[in-house]
Design a protein that fits this description.
The protein has eight helices and 14 strands. It is an alpha+beta fold and 311 residues long.
Length: 311
């Protein structure tokens, strides 16, 4: 079910945060151009969503806010965020929206997913406490560059984790983010394109944030830090970094950033691609993001997509 926090409630939150003190219902009413009864109803709605707002004769004071990924928590992005309490898959909803003409930068986000999707048809565990979103992109690039979008997103997530928390996030080809060799984020990109033009790319991002992970090869930010972190801060930073990185999709700078963060290059790997198993040393990625593997017989193999295992 979609969240019902609306634009007026977002404006109320902005006013309360800007003040840091009590704001009268009269002042809020004048600022939003609605009655004081409407203000009271919006305040009640926010309280139902978990905001702690203290009323008094002086007006309203915001005491605390829940760690929810509601549109009103992302100034400047409110009109582009479609928030749901639970979905089967943000990728499914984003695909339907993209086909109906949703604009560049539309974001579908869910507090949890019942059938989250990973690469190669795998299920992505999506309990409450993670970040599960799909961003609709309409890049003006040749479809040949589209595989770089996964690399771009993984760089954005790894750089965000390093900057915000000082954790040594690394990248596993083609699109995983690791901490200490354990997966903290998975990325899935699905494209629809003509011969020479990309219609849209749906970029799915799943980050283990404030959830405990039982899988041996996975981790979460909370598990690494020993404390909860702000999902709103993480998602805001990732979205801003994706915006920055998008301008680099056709430049070699992007590949250079990915290589700097790579945990795959220089390692012995086994890659399963199209039913074929390729073993050797990962030595490079080419201009389209394909992994170059030096096989044990000395030959070079270019792998555009596959399941990579670090040995």
């Amino acid at each position: 079910m979609r969240a019902m926090v609306n634009n007026a409630e977002g404006e109320i939150l902005r006013a309360l945060r800007a003040s840091g003190d009590y704001v009268s219902g009269e002042a809020l009413s004048a600022e939003l151009g609605v009655s004081r009864v409407c203000i009271w109803k919006h305040i009640r709605s926010l309280v139902r969503h978990g905001y702690v707002i203290k009323p008094s004769s002086r007006g309203y004071h915001l005491v605390s806010a829940p760690d929810l990924l509601l549109p009103c928590e992302f100034p400047g992005w409110e009109q582009k965020i479609c928030h749901f309490w639970e979905l089967d898959s943000t990728m499914r909803v984003a695909k339907a929206l993209a086909k109906r003409g949703a604009e560049e930068g539309t974001i579908v986000v869910a507090e949890s997913q019942s059938r989250g999707r990973g690469r190669l048809g795998r299920e992505w565990s999506s309990p409450v406490g993670g970040i599960y979103c799909t961003v609709i992109l309409r890049p003006k690039i040749n479809p040949a560059y589209a595989p770089r979008i996964s690399l771009m997103a993984s760089v954005a997530v790894a750089r965000t984790i390093r900057r915000l928390f000082g954790l040594p996030a690394e990248l596993k080809w083609p699109n995983d983010v690791l901490i200490g060799g354990k997966k903290v984020c998975g990325i899935l990109a699905e494209m629809e394109a003509e011969m020479d033009e990309v219609d849209f790319v749906n970029l799915g991002i799943g980050i283990n944030v404030n959830c405990s992970i039982s899988q041996q090869r996975a981790t979460s930010l909370r598990d690494e830090l020993g404390t909860d972190v702000s999902r709103k801060e993480v998602l805001s930073a990732v979205l801003a970094e994706i915006q920055r990185q998008q301008g680099m999709l056709t430049r070699d700078d992007l590949l250079g950033e990915w290589k700097e963060l790579s945990a795959t290059l220089g390692r012995e790997v086994t890659v399963v691609s199209l039913g074929e198993e390729i073993a050797g040393k990962a030595i490079d990625v080419d201009t389209n993001g394909a992994l170059i593997v030096k096989c044990r017989d000395g030959s070079l193999t270019r792998v555009l997509a596959g399941d990579c295992l670090h040995l």
